[in-house]
């Protein structure tokens, strides 16, 4: 975890093993004429980490094959996911944006001016900005550097240092009065907030229904960790003096007729997004997959209340990954992702198990998406 993303190395050093295989496969590192090793300038274009390659191998050699979903989001994966969010069938992003627009004034009216917003998994600032531009309806310009905005500071947390740098640069232009403190960290591990001027209130923010991509147990553990992170030293502090809130977005639609096209669109963008996992393993971890030999399949699992993403091998084959052989039977699937959809009662039990209580709840007119303010 690093607080200042400048501290993150611009290049990743490639060693042996899976990373060595990745280097050979991608030509990612070259020796200059004087024997110096030149590394690629952009970390997102570098090899998958040795740890990720090990996780991929572990998943593909298990009796039921899986791949770690974190591998989805390389440069190409991020581009394809952005395309998904614009698809007519993928109603989720659009619905959440609209809901945020209509509820943001009410959410921020519950906070004193001079608050800090902490976003978990902030791949960009577009959702946060809806909150960041809200001003206190009391209308009292308080002389703070972000004018009379409710939020004075923004702490975006993400594993991708380049994305955080881009966020900071864009906000420096657009909101010069806002203090932006990026934190490069994996939110599935404990996080300590960076040192900063004391704020009037803290609000965590976890949009994008990312909570649905976690298994229910880890989702509760995440919410519990976030509660600890946001209640800093001196906890429990006086609630009145320093309110701590958490704004959580999640999917509530459990209708397969609407969900399946959202995860298996006719234009095939989601299929390309799913197959990019294999293309990425080819590029970066010495894989020999033919991505077109794997069919994209979305399944609604009613018992688990989740959409499952699979890649189904169209024939029996053997594939190499980082020097190891992986056998596939015809029709065998790689389970690549889950997206849980929560009935409100179930989510309520989860947030309460994590120590939060639901203060307010909003939903869109069609009841597809929920935004909850937790205290
Ligand atoms: N958070 C998104 C979701 O679960 C991620 C996503 C959308 C996704 N489409 C996907 C993940 C297809 C894997 C495959 O809705």
Find the count of extended strands (DSSP E, 2+ residues). Answer: 16
The helical percent reads 25-40%
Q: Main β-sheet, in a few words? A: 8 strands, mixed
Unreliable sequence segments: 4-45, 139-145
How would the blueprint of this fold be written?
Layout: H1 17-26, E1 30-31, E2 37-38, H2 50-60, E3 65-66, H3 75-86, H4 91-109, E4 115-120, H5 126-132, E5 151-158, H6 161-174, E6 179-180, E7 183-184, E8 202-206, H7 216-230, E9 244-251, H8 256-263, H9 269-285, E10 294-301, E11 306-313, E12 317-321, E13 324-328, E14 333-340, H10 344-353, E15 358-363, E16 369-374
Parallel strand pairs: 3-14, 4-5, 4-8, 5-6, 5-7, 8-9
Antiparallel strand pairs: 1-2, 9-16, 10-11, 11-14, 12-13, 15-16
Bound molecules: tryptophan.
How would you characterize the overall build of this protein?
This protein folds into 2 domains: 37-72 and 256-340, no CATH class; 92-253 and 344-374, Vaccinia Virus protein VP39 (Rossmann fold), CATH 3.40.50.150. 33% of the residues lie in helices and 22% in strands. It has 10 helices and 16 strands. The chain has helices spanning 17-26, 50-60, 75-86, 91-109, 126-132, 161-174, 216-230, 256-263, 269-285, 344-353, and strands at residues 30-31, 37-38, 65-66, 115-120, 151-158, 179-180, 183-184, 202-206, 244-251, 294-301, 306-313, 317-321, 324-328, 333-340, 358-363, 369-374. Strands 4, 5, 6, 7, 8, 9, 15 and 16 form an 8-stranded mixed sheet that branches. A 4-stranded mixed sheet has the order 3-14-11-10. It has a two-stranded antiparallel sheet with strand order 1-2. It starts with 16 loop residues before the first helix and ends with a strand. Residues 4-45 and 139-145 have low confidence and may be disordered. The structure holds tryptophan (TRP).
């Amino acid at each position: 975890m690093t607080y200042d993303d400048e501290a993150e190395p611009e290049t990743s050093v490639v060693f042996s093993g899976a990373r060595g295989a990745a280097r050979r496969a991608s030509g990612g590192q070259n020796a200059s004429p004087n024997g110096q090793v030149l590394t690629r300038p952009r970390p997102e274009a570098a090899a998958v980490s040795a740890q990720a390659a090990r996780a991929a191998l572990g998943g593909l050699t298990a009796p039921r094959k899986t791949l770690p979903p974190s591998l989805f989001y390389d440069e190409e994966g991020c581009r394809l996911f952005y395309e998904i969010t614009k698809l007519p069938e993928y109603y989720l992003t659009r619905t959440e944006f609209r809901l945020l627009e209509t509820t943001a004034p009410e959410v921020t009216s519950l906070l004193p001016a001079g608050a800090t917003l902490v976003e978990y998994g902030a791949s960009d600032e577009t959702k946060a900005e809806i909150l960041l531009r809200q001003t206190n309806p009391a209308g009292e310009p308080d002389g703070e550097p972000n004018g009379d905005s409710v939020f004075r500071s923004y702490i975006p947390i993400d594993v991708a240092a380049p994305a955080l740098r881009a966020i900071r640069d864009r906000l420096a232009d657009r909101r010069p009065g806002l203090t932006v403190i990026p934190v490069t960290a994996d939110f599935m591990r404990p996080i300590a907030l960076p040192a900063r001027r004391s704020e009037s209130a803290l609000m965590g923010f976890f949009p994008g229904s990312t909570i649905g991509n976690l298994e229910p147990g880890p989702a509760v553990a995440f919410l519990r960790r976030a509660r600890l992170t946001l209640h800093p030293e001196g906890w429990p502090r006086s609630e009145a003096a320093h309110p701590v809130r958490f704004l959580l977005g999640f999917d509530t639609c459990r209708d397969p007729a609407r969900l399946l096209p959202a995860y298996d669109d006719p234009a095939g963008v989601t299929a390309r997004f799913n197959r990019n996992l294999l293309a990425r393993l080819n590029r970066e971890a010495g894989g020999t997959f033919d991505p077109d030999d794997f069919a994209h399949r979305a399944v609604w699992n009613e018992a688990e209340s989740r959409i499952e993403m699979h890649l189904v091998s169209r024939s029996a084959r053997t594939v190499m990954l980082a020097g190891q052989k992986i056998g596939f039977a015809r029709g065998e699937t790689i389970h690549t992702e889950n997206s849980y959809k929560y009935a409100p009662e179930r989510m309520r039990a989860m947030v309460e198990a994590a120590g939060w209580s639901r203060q307010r709840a909003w939903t869109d007119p069609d009841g597809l998406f929920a935004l909850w303010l937790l205290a």
